[in-house]
Amino acid sequence: MSFPKIDDTHDPALTSWVSGADGHADFPVQNLPLGIFAPKAGAPRAGVAIGDHILDLAQCAERGLLPEAVRDAVRGRTLNALFALPSADRLALRRSLSRMLSDGKHRESIEPCLFAAADCTLHLPAAIGDYTDFYVGIHHATNVGKLFRPDNPLLPNYKYVPIGYHGRASSVRSSGVPVVRPRGQRKAPDADAPTVGPTGRLDYELELGVWIGQGNAPGEAIPINEAAGHVAGFCLLNDWSARDFQAWEYVPLGPFLAKNFHSTVSPWVVTAEAMAPFRIAQPARPEGDPAPLPYLWDEADQAQGALSLTLEVCISSAKMREANMPPHRLSHGPASNMYWTVQQIVTHHASNGCDLRPGDLLGTGTISAAEREGYGSLLELTEGGKTKVLLPTGEERAFLEDGDEIILRGRAEAAGFASIGLGECRAVILPAK
Amino acid sequence: MSFPKIDDTHDPALTSWVSGADGHADFPVQNLPLGIFAPKAGAPRAGVAIGDHILDLAQCAERGLLPEAVRDAVRGRTLNALFALPSADRLALRRSLSRMLSDGKHRESIEPCLFAAADCTLHLPAAIGDYTDFYVGIHHATNVGKLFRPDNPLLPNYKYVPIGYHGRASSVRSSGVPVVRPRGQRKAPDADAPTVGPTGRLDYELELGVWIGQGNAPGEAIPINEAAGHVAGFCLLNDWSARDFQAWEYVPLGPFLAKNFHSTVSPWVVTAEAMAPFRIAQPARPEGDPAPLPYLWDEADQAQGALSLTLEVCISSAKMREANMPPHRLSHGPASNMYWTVQQIVTHHASNGCDLRPGDLLGTGTISAAEREGYGSLLELTEGGKTKVLLPTGEERAFLEDGDEIILRGRAEAAGFASIGLGECRAVILPAK
């Protein structure tokens, strides 16, 4: 398994001459996430986050400051071309950026390519060819399963198949784009027929997003011991869900309009290379669980295929913002609560010859912890709307209301290394049209 | 409802100076379907089929022969830009092409832009942003439902919701690209655990494909009386399916690897304008069925929202081809066996604000007739593999075998008009890797 290796770019003692970068919660010089940004009155272009600044990669390329292998690839309006390169080229870019942003001798040539992040707009990092959402958060699957089937929450295929389904690529939006409350069909359990209207059970789902790097040829599988080489990086993903639409529409072909109105991703791609220090063993399967089938089994993947990443969900209601209250944390828990590793997801997806392409987005599915404090959706926190969540204003929530803003965050930590973050994934709910 | 109107381009007396076009089974001058083709040793470009020839639209544009509104749009390697134009512009293109290809005075200027279709390769007509597959063939839904739930084949939502799910855009291929038999997980009903291997239940699905023209803004619905204006045209779609994978993986989130290894479309887009004479009333709902909800109801759509189109499936086994036998017809039936119109599908899809984009592909789902001769999949024809189909060679089929080729065809007919066809959608099965 070709996981990126730890090198001197991960050195916790490394500092940057960019003011505010050292000790930055998300983007110290050890992170160097990639994204697409537009400065005021400028066109979208590739950039890298460093503290509260963004380095313009296109401008750096024009000035001949980047490795030759990536120069053309960073000039587009998306990162797809950069994702399509061998990961060795992105590693070369990382090493070059690390040097330029840490060693003061580069300051003069680099500083003109820096923008204050606050003055920039962040866009989707890639043109998403296909977006696939998985269901590997086993506690989420169990919690949701219990609502429908108390005695038998997990279906028989769950521990053999990394369950996934295709989502909607067109409606994936970058952090900050408001979510319009969707309209649709829902049927009350005791009603004879459905009615149409704004969803009354709007929910978030806390997920990890995976950006695909190099793809596979149509008809060719991706062996599990090569899967890590196809992952360009990670982001946060909020898979907004209309639970009432979902319950009515989802048999027999799965969720559709309950999900495809809007999905939000954090705009920065934290590269697989940046995550090298944060690899941990995949949690052991409970005794009695079947071993993964051979095509999904790799010893190295089990040893270091999971991520030491803590995820959290916060809410900020309109009333809270009026009262200048900080966002209220709804839940937090480790991203390792996944029954399958990212590599197993990738290999399973391509196992029938399905071609993944650079810039494709995979979602893990909601990642919940075993305990209530780590539940990754309101559906779980409120037991399907029965137990309301109390906000600091005294407001209660069974599901989301107009004006509510949901903020996802993720933080990678490992002893002896500088902590890095995924940045924010946020969006506010607007009333239905 | 703004359905395209019948005009003099549909005149059955219209003839073309292109040899072989008059009386052509699929592409007489009344059809003029759009596609992307590559001549020998040439790059892919936009073209229009006329008889056994293809007119190079990019070359016509360069020579100033096309309406100004479409000149830039036909110069790309896909039809997406042409689909993004108002349908009035595609109508202008159609009228111009009809004049140039029927009136002999244009022959001298046009003839150098013609290629023999036999010398050309046909590509996917558009870069597909998202591909959605529906389930509106009510006899198919009933037949398949019976296999699982003999007493209650249709689920309660079927007559309210045009059921659909997202498919895989990356694995949609043009006619002629062989299908590699996929490998995957399947579990025999009496087995304790699944095994992995090539599918033993490979099937086709006969569907109509719909190419989206102008899209909608994110968050904005498409009213039913405007839906027809968002349809650029039609094709045939074979939604290849691995039934053993499907049965094992599809709960609770729907089909995934059972479908996303390959889907085949016919390469020519028969435009909504070309189909104007072939509009018929939507079949009346059986007595007792609920009326469509208001957002899906439009009188004009009910009056002329269906298509007078006969679809057929043929098979050609390797043995049949060795013996020079013609393909054997497995089934045929009318495309109007849809519980929802194409317009209702489009409106439902966007009803939650989901944005459709030019070049998106919608599949209707398998279209079966009520009678066995019109069943659109082997799953139905063989009752889940129990009743084998006999081929003229004496071979039998429960499901598809390596070397089998499946050919879909579609023909539009209406009294007083020249019949037009959708062209062929074909692919042969290769052994698993």
UniProtKB/TrEMBL annotation, chains A, B:
Gene source species: Sphingobium phenoxybenzoativorans
InterPro entries: Fumarylacetoacetase, Fumarylacetoacetase-like_C, Fumarylacetoacetase_C_sf, Fumarylacetoacetase_N, Fumarylacetoacetase_N_sf
Gene3D superfamilies (UniProt xref): Fumarylacetoacetase, N-terminal domain, Fumarylacetoacetase-like, C-terminal domain
GO molecular function: fumarylacetoacetase activity; metal ion binding
Pathway per the UniProt entry: Amino-acid degradation; L-phenylalanine degradation; acetoacetate and fumarate from L-phenylalanine: step 6/6
Record: residues binding substrate: 135, 149, 246, 250, 366
Keywords: Calcium, Hydrolase, Magnesium, Metal-binding, Phenylalanine catabolism, Tyrosine catabolism
Ranges for domain Fumarylacetoacetase-like C-terminal: 139-427
Enzyme class, UniProt record, top EC level: hydrolase
Residue span, Fumarylacetoacetase N-terminal domain: 30-125
Descriptive protein name: fumarylacetoacetase
UniProt KW rRNA processing keyword: no
Binding site for Mg(2+): 239, 259, 263
Metal-binding recorded as keyword: yes
Coiled coil regions in record: none
Start and end residues of each stretch annotated as Disordered: 174-196
Gene Ontology terms: biological process: homogentisate catabolic process; L-phenylalanine catabolic process; L-tyrosine catabolic process
Active site per UniProt: 140 (proton acceptor)
Pfam family, any one: FAA_hydrolase_N
